[in-house]
Amino acid sequence: MASSVGNVADSTGLAELAHREYQSGDFEAAERHCMQLWRQEPDNTGVLLLLSSIHFQCRRLDRSAHFSTLAIKQNPMLAEAYSNLGNVYKERGQLQEAIEHYRHALRLKPDFIDGYINLAAALVAAGDMEGAVQAYVSALQYNPVSRPWTQFVYLIIRQQPSTKPNVLVFCQTLTLNMSCTPKPPQSDVNSSIVLPRHQIKCYWSHTHLSDVNAGVDILI
């Protein structure tokens, strides 16, 4: 009994350590501790998701896809694994496959906020601005304050500068429907949008190891 309790404690400690290392950008150490934990718990889909995220950050896309696929084999209903695969396809420029995987993830988990944001980013890259806006509005409907929506505005304008006038109209319309945000004056629409020029926090789903939401800041 004592040994069993000790193993659980060791596993929990390893999981927390791996998360901290991942968040701090020490991917080599995070991978090492994940592999140690995976040997102890080969059915742990949370470990597989985190390994997928680690390899994605290191641009080892084949390995990232491999661990996402293993997670899906363990649990075909695991939305985060399909989203991680979508990230790999998007990075490879296979936008249609990425979009299909994000949409499948959302069918499995309709309140998956990061899934909507990933889908929106892929649709922007594919030039489908209307679809991207719809995806992001869906995310806001589940949780209006889950992510700063100005990040999404910046993403669209950065990808497609010619869409800026239409995006500004969208922002004003969105503002009117968000109780947490006051309506900006017509003359101040531009100033009401804070475009982050230094960092956007991008999320890759690996939250099955613990309840701590983790993200990685990407310089742009």
How would you summarize this macromolecular structure in one to three sentences?
Keywords: TPR repeat. This protein has 220 residues and is mainly alpha-helical.
What is the topological layout?
Layout: H1 2-24, H2 27-40, H3 45-57, H4 61-74, H5 79-91, H6 95-108, H7 113-125, H8 129-142, H9 149-159, H10 164-176, E1 199-202, E2 216-219
Antiparallel strand pairs: 1-2
Helix pairs in contact: 1-2, 2-3, 3-4, 3-5, 4-5, 5-6, 6-7, 7-8, 7-9
Describe the protein.
The protein is elongated. Strands 1-2 form a two-stranded antiparallel ribbon. The protein has 220 residues and is mainly alpha-helical. It is 65% helix and 4% strand. Among the domains are: 65 residues, Serine Threonine Protein Phosphatase 5, Tetratricopeptide repeat; 85 residues, Alpha Horseshoe (Serine Threonine Protein Phosphatase 5, Tetratricopeptide repeat). One of its GO terms (molecular function) is protein O-acetylglucosaminyltransferase activity. Keywords: TPR repeat.
Radius of gyration computed on alpha carbons: 19 Å
Second rung of CATH, namely the architecture of one domain: Alpha Horseshoe
Q: Describe the sheet with the most strands.
A: 2 strands, antiparallel
Oligomer: single chain
- What fraction, in percent, of the residue positions are helical? 55-70%
Q: Approximately how much beta-strand content do the residues carry?
A: under 5%
Number of beta strands: 2
How far apart the termini lie comes to 51 Å
- The CATH H-level superfamily of one domain is Tetratricopeptide repeat domain
* Large-scale geometry: elongated
Mean pLDDT across residues? 73
Ranges where pLDDT stays below 50 over 5 or more residues in a row are: 1-6, 176-220
At the first level of CATH, the class of one domain is Mainly Alpha
The sequence of SSEs as H and E is HHHHHHHHHHEE
Pfam families: TPR_11
Organism: Hucho hucho
GO biological process, one term: protein O-linked glycosylation
Keywords: TPR repeat
